[in-house]
Amino acid sequence: STSISPLCLSSSSFTVCPISFPPVFLFRANTHCLPFTSVLVLPRHLSFFPDWASLTLGVFVCQACSLLHRSIPHISRVKSVQDTWDASEVELMAAMGNNAAKAKYEQKVPAFYYRPTHTDCKEQWIRAKYERNEFEFIEKQEPYSAGYREGFLWKRGRDNGQFLSRKFILSEREGALKYFNKQDARDPKAVMKIETLNATFQPAKIGNPCGLQITYLKDNSTRNIFVYHSDAKEMVDWFNAIRAARFHYLQVAFPGASDEELVPKLTRNFMKEGFMEKTGPKHTEGFKKRWFTMDDRRLMYFKDPLDAYARGEVFIGSKENSYTVLAGLPPSTQGYHWNHGITIVTPERKFLFACETEAEQRDWIAAFQRVINRPMRPQEYAVEAHFKHKP
Ligand SMILES: [Zn+2]
């Protein structure tokens, strides 16, 4: 059998097309082992030539994805490009390639469907595509596209922190996600309006690979619930069902808006989270360590990262509206333990924070700067007004 030297498939056999994005790798034509010219488009998250390929699917994958592909060996047989390849294997890759695979396996991905990063349940995206073929047959999308979903999730108890099984119902018709404390209860424990619903994967905080933080507004304040399911597919289906419900809600609320305008509004990941120290409005109360979450323009602080609601919320407007972030604290400030201060100036008052490390200080300032540099949208003035009227 013809065996191809590993060199032929190492990066020296490919050239990067300098003008296309996502990057396109061209097989170098007329090399002795590749009697054809072929074009491969790489996954969008790759900017370098990958070390791995799935022989059975005919796609190149990155190191992290290769590990996920290994967990479904009946679908995807992974091989290093440094390995020795025989001619039939090379031809197989050339016959499919990432471009053609995308056209086949992603032909009917709903607009609302979340394309994950490596930190939020990417394995389920790979399984949905290649194992369950969900994006070739729309009837397989029913768990998240039907407009109604009900089932049980493990929900963290507000007071004792224990996860307990709770029934959840998502109904587009009712415009709400509800959960029930007792299985036969008629009245839900909480009704979360789709209008203000958000969900974000929080594996580290929740301690489950597909743990989901769901937030919603109640009386203009943020409420958190933390849920997971032992079957990751179930959790990802819930997440996409929430996105589908939000999508349809927004389509009605903003008729004429394009999918491209609505999709970024379906769910949002937090801009930054972590511990900082804070002091009170008089700046003489002493600094206390709190967990902070920057959710778009809402800076919230919690005693514990898994608290159901924030101890306080600060609205961060734009520079045009007199919001500023500065490194450091006013000279007279006392009582902090961490040395990397941040001062946020709002039209009302100054907020003083202290970070443990310089890197944290830099990251927080960058997060604040991002929203401060962005002009406020009309509806954000209404949100700002709610904050001003808070006692
Ligand atoms: Zn990857």
TrEMBL record:
Subcellular localization, as worded in the UniProt entry: Cytoplasm
Main localization, broad class: cytoplasm
SMART domains cross-referenced by the UniProt entry: ArfGap, PH
Limits of the Arf-GAP domain: 30-143
One Gene Ontology CC term in the entry: plasma membrane
InterPro entries given in the database record: Arf-GAP_dual-PH_domain, ARFGAP/RecO, ArfGAP_dom, ArfGAP_dom_sf, PH-like_dom_sf, PH1_ADAP, PH2_ADAP, PH_domain
Leader peptide range in chain numbering: none
SUPFAM superfamilies: ArfGap/RecO-like zinc finger, PH domain-like
Record keywords, A-Z: Cytoplasm, GTPase activation, Metal-binding, Repeat, Zinc, Zinc-finger
Molecular-function annotations in GO: GTPase activator activity; phosphatidylinositol bisphosphate binding; phosphatidylinositol-3,4,5-trisphosphate binding; zinc ion binding
Domain PH: from-to ranges: 146-247, 269-373
Stated name of the protein: ArfGAP with dual PH domains 1
Organism: Anabas testudineus
